[in-house]
Amino acid sequence: MRSLCAVLVLASSVSAQQSTQPAAPSTALTIYNENFAVARTAIDLDLRSGRNEVSTTRVTSQLEPDSVILRDPSGLHTFRILEQNYDAGVIDQDSMLRKYEGKTIDFEVGPSRLPSGEPVAANTPIIVSGTIIRAPRNSAWPNQYSQFVSYQQSQPLIEVNGHLEFVLPGTPLFPASTDGLLLEPTLRWQIESERPQKFPVELAYITQGLSWSATYNVVVPDSGAAASEEKSGLTGWVTIQNQSGSEFPSARIKLMAGDVAKITPQNQYQMRDQIAFGTGANIVNGQVTQKPFDDFHLYDLNRTVSLLNNQTMQVQFVDASGVTLSRSYRYNGAAEMQPYQSNNGYVNQQPEFGIDPANTKIQIVESFKNSSANHLGMPLPAGRIRLYRRDSDGQMEFVGESMINHTPADDTVRIVTGNAFDIKASRRQTDFHVNMQDRIVDESFEIHLTSQKAEPVTVSVVEPMYRGVNWEIRDKSADYAKLDARTIEFPVRIPAKGDATLTYSVRYTW
After folding, report:
1. How far apart are CA 423 and CA 229, in angstroms?
2. pLDDT, tens digit, 9 for 90 and up, residues 299-341
3. Which of 3.40.190.170, 3.40.50.450, 2.40.30.10, 2.60.40.290 would CATH assign to domain 322-379+403-509?
């Protein structure tokens, strides 16, 4: 596909006479978390007076043409860009077949194409000639028959020995000439210069197909039965993926952190949820460093790497030991209920609203403080965090994983690793009464907890106040904390191999 765009943001211009650039220097990549990056590379221009034709192949096949900026960093040279063209239609087998449509070429085939009994010398290629009547095409008509049409158009039609075949008879052998073929994505400019001049310029553009993410591994050593607090090791990895269709044999990579606004091709305004690193961690070999940039953060790998197309590269950026990990248990018997919404303050008066007797599962929550006192203290990027535990014979077993959000320094990271096997809960409504005259709803609950563990445990019982916004706890068997305007939490202690019961009553008014 060929697209033409005028570059409106350039105060400078660029050029080089009809020549392809020499061996490329390193490319600087600033990679964002959701499949795009800013690429920057240097081009040496050799302009003559008047109009110049300039081209470069130091671009990707997913470049956004209207994002291109070509500038003289020194600001000492004047030029004007008259026109820009971006060619991304790199040659492949199907496009070569289309180029030779109506012509006869050779195909390398297998022995089955020869008449029965005809001898074939070992390692001797078998060549047959075929005329390309129709080359395959990948387009589809936008109608209810689009799948059928796409299938028909994707089939080649080849004439071999007076017969028409709907498959290629073998591997097509094209003439060696590459004249007029686009072997790499190419940017072309028409540049006007008032005088002959030679100088380097910077080419910068946005490209799709490059992304990065963070993952973490937490390893807890064997300490017999799982304790409420344990020492663990934590490693963090940056995973960089290149699916841009281009290779970067010499790349200097930075990672942009922050919520960066990016308009999608569908003109939808989307906040790209980026990674947010920080400082204060044990950075492996001192390689990954960060600095503030605008309202975001830049993280530099501090070395030149080779990033090939379809390659996934991983770089370790944090390695901490002695991190204190705390275990807790959480029960929310009405976790699936959506709070009743009312613009005039009314209360839901249906007795069965919010009752889920089948919910008996108690979540296991592992948490650690992201502080320097806990051998961390850096803002951790959002990503996947896995928990491993060593058993008594030293083997490491996977025990759960979660996704975490961006976590600032001195905040707490929580990992939900699954549901407890030996701890169960049940929740039931014990009373319900509506007083329409006084506009009151009274409701009571009983939460019963049992544990078969050999040690006492504390379960945080979370109760949503989902009937209305005006509520008051009238009676309770344990103290509670108010988490927000619609949620309270009761810490309930269960004895070893025992049970405990929590009761409370709530009044709603409107």
Report:
1. 19
2. 788 888 899 999 999 988 889 999 999 999 999 988 776 677 6
3. 2.60.40.290
